[in-house]
Amino acid sequence: MTVDAVTVTVRYGRIGAGGQTQTTTFPSAAKAQAAAAKKVGEKVRKGYAPAVRGQRAPRSVTRRQVTSAPSTARAVAPVLWRFGTGSSAFGIHVDDDRCWVGNQSGDVFTLDHEGEVLARFSLPDGVKCLVADDFWIYAGCDDGRVYDLSSKLPFAAYDIAADVDIFWLDIHEGVLNVSDRAGRLTVIDHEDEHQWTRRSQGEHAWMVRADDRAVYHGHHRGVTAYAPDGGGELWHTPTRGGVLFGWQEDDTVYAGTAHRVVQRLSKATGAVEATYACDSAVYSCATSPGGRFVFAGDAASSVYCFDRDGTRLWKLGTGGGSALSMQYRDERLYLVTTDGSLVCVDASEAAVTAAQQGSVPVVRDVKLAAALPTYAPATAATAVATVAQAPSGAVVVECVQQHGRMRVHVVSDGYDGSWNVQFPAGRYGSRGHATSWTRCTRPPAASTGCAERSAACS
After folding, report:
1. Cα(31)–Cα(324) distance, rounded to whole angstroms?
2. In the chain, what is the greatest distance between 2 CA atoms, to the nearest angstrom?
3. Taking burial as the number of CB atoms within 10 A of a residue's CB, which of 102, 214, 266, 388 is the most buried?
4. Domain spanning 2-45, CATH architecture
5. Do the Cβ atoms of 147 and 123 come closer than 8 Å?
6. Cα separation of 48 and 9, whole Å?
7. For residue range 134-167, what is the model confidence (pLDDT) as tens digits?
8. Residue 65: helix, strand or coil by DSSP?
9. Which helix (H) or strand (E) holds 352?
10. Whole-structure pTM over 0.85, yes or no?
11. How far apart are CA 294 and CA 284, in angstroms?
């Protein structure tokens, strides 16, 4: 941030990177100085430390170092389609309508289930993971922010302190859970307020999963469960090798490890209920609903399927890189790989049987359309469309500052204007209208009560 007479310039972005700037002119130099001091105070209250340009190192970012060897499987998986994103990809989410993939270049793409590319988001830094919470979809990035991609304009929904070297994220009912390189678990609520931190017995925490009962934290010494309110450790279970990936079902969590196994643990006690043996380090795992089938991806470009008790049903090559993350849905296994591909595998019994006999479908290589729309986060209020007169049936909201924090209030008739609405941060003074509106199911802020949340804002 720089102040030049009546002008305040704020640069947003990681230390050492170019970032983006916002310039504001004030009526007097005193007002400019006051506005700058207020902005610095807001950041300090969020846990940031003041920094002078050139005197502080960039935010610590650990890029996951992975190797990928050729598959030793005798047959290749029945791949239906493949989409290359351009760089190594860790982020994946598949829902009823779309497949999402995020890569280390900061690109997030959405496709339909048949491989048609629908949209592209361009984020400021590499995407560590994609997580969903109800119908909200978030991307955790190496710049320390978690971006909400649920509407047309992505925005930073959470801002993580600079001393947290993010490895993985999960969000449950608006509460953000962050695991990091040092083996810490950091929990931040839906108001972007730090709640609690715990340090587990191990480092390199590549797993965090959360539900109503606990937060499950996987690191190089095993899996540790903590009470969701930060009340303490519930249980700790050593695993066969450091945890590289985690998955959860209603009553169990699954840990893929460096020692070539996936282990299923009871959420209630931490007891190991089953072990699924692979032939190389396990980079990713997933299950069919209820854990009937367990899938794993290893460092040698192979995918596996096991039944619930641990019996290996098949092993097939990916036809490309190693699967860094995966998700099963409707007899299809979706993979994101070391070569940056989103891969759709036909995991039906008939297709797998045919593949084991050497019969696989012709893979459709999905191409990126030149005219594909690309959406990037806005860094200034002027980037958000404002309205003089809202369309019929729309709800108008306004961003205001209250006690150093940005709040959003409804200004349309028929709503309580004192209630808060979740909306993109840093949009002070702007107005917009919500084209659809739904009741928020998240817990209310202690002092303000719960308002409502727009599903699509312009």
Report:
1. 50
2. 78
3. 102
4. Single Sheet (2.20)
5. yes
6. 18
7. 888 999 998 889 999 988 789 888 888 888 888 9
8. coil
9. helix 349-356
10. no
11. 11
